């Protein structure tokens, strides 16, 4: 795997239980790249993302992600793999019973940060990166949807991941707020990480065109500049 390669898949098959969802998946994604993952409902976008963070096993083909070979990764190595991957979902998944700061503290504690000063500093840094420097004391329900998604992105950045996997991160947001989130995710990719984002939002893709992968008929197709209108191959 080249030094700057973050994801390298070679002839990978993706299964849900014993059902083959995707096969012959061969692609690579490098440092600094932003890539969309599109395809109709049920075509395997989430399954592919789950495979990349070792929530689904690799039994056929090869998958190397942030330096881990997923074909022979050991269960005890999975938390270390996930520390190098930031994951962002459509529904934010913040803990509703605690403040923004405490949501972030929770993750740092769970991932072994013991030095409180360093942890506080890190939290300040990531909140600043997502434009929420002054909102750490707020409870999630006191924030707008876009702000909650920014907190989720801040949380994903805590351990300085090499890769961000985002599963429809703008799915619950209005168009203007979605653009803000996209700008943020692009900035994150430009800072030397890779971002892979599953989406159904073609309007956003037109506004922020970049390399696009498409799940279709059990395969993953690639286009360097999107696929034009939904359903057609540019
Ligand atoms: N936990 C599961 N157990 C069994 N089959 C599943 C499971 N999750 C998904 N599947 C099946 O795997 C296939 C791919 O689903 P997946 O969720 O990856 O699609 P998707 O492209 O992400 O869809 P969407 O756009 O609706 O999120 C579907 O046929 C789905 O029914």
Would you write up a description of this structure?
It contains seven helices and ten strands. The chain has 234 residues and is an alpha/beta fold. It has two domains: 1-84 and 161-227, Rossmann fold (3-Layer(aba) Sandwich); 90-160, no CATH class. The strands form two sheets. Strands 6-7-8-3-9-10 form a six-stranded mixed beta sheet, sandwiched between helices. A four-stranded antiparallel beta sheet has the order 2-1-4-5, covered by helices on one side. Helix 4 crosses helix 5 and helix 5 (145-157) packs parallel to helix 6 (175-190). The radius of gyration is 18 Å and the shape is globular. The two termini are 29 Å apart. Adenosine-5'-triphosphate binds at residues 16-17, 21, 39, 41-47, 215.
Can you say what the CATH homologous superfamily of the largest domain is?
P-loop containing nucleotide triphosphate hydrolases
Q: Which fold does the CATH topology of the largest domain refer to?
A: Rossmann fold
Structural category: alpha/beta
- Beta-strand share of residues: 25-35%
The SSE order reads EEEHEEHEHHHEHEHEE
CATH class of the largest domain: Alpha Beta
Strand order of the largest sheet: 6-7-8-3-9-10
Q: How many strands, what sense, and barrel or not for the largest sheet?
A: 6 strands, mixed
Taking pLDDT < 50 over at least 5 consecutive residues as the criterion, the unreliable ranges are none
Number of domains: 2
Mean pLDDT: 92
Shape descriptor:
globular
CA-atom Rg in angstroms: 18 Å
Each distinct ligand: adenosine-5'-triphosphate
> What's the total count of β strands?
10
- Given the structure, what is the number of helices? 7
Intertermini distance = 29 Å
- At CATH level 2, the architecture of the largest domain is 3-Layer(aba) Sandwich
What level of helicity do the residues show? 25-40%
Family: Belongs to the ABC transporter superfamily.
Function: Part of the ABC transporter FtsEX involved in cellular division. Important for assembly or stability of the septal ring.
Keywords: ATP-binding, Nucleotide-binding
Protein name: Cell division ATP-binding protein FtsE
